[in-house]
Amino acid sequence: MGTAVFVTRTGDASVLEAREHDPGAPGAGQARVAIRAAGVNFIDVYFRKGEYPGVPPFVAGMEGAGVIEAVGPGVDLAVGQRVAWATGFESYATHVVAPAAALVPVPDAVPDDVAAAALLQGMTAHYLVHGCRETKAGDTALVHAAAGGAGLLTVQVLARAGARVIGTCSTEEKAALVREAGAENVVLYTEEDFVEAAKLWSDGGVDVVYDSVGKTTFDGSLACLKSRGLLVLFRQSSGAVPPFDPNRLNTSGSIFLTRPSLWHYVATREELLLRAEAVLGAIERGELTIRIGARFPLSQAADAHRVLEGRKTTGKVLLIP
Question: Per the confidence metrics, is the pTM higher than 0.85?
Answer without folding.
Answer: yes
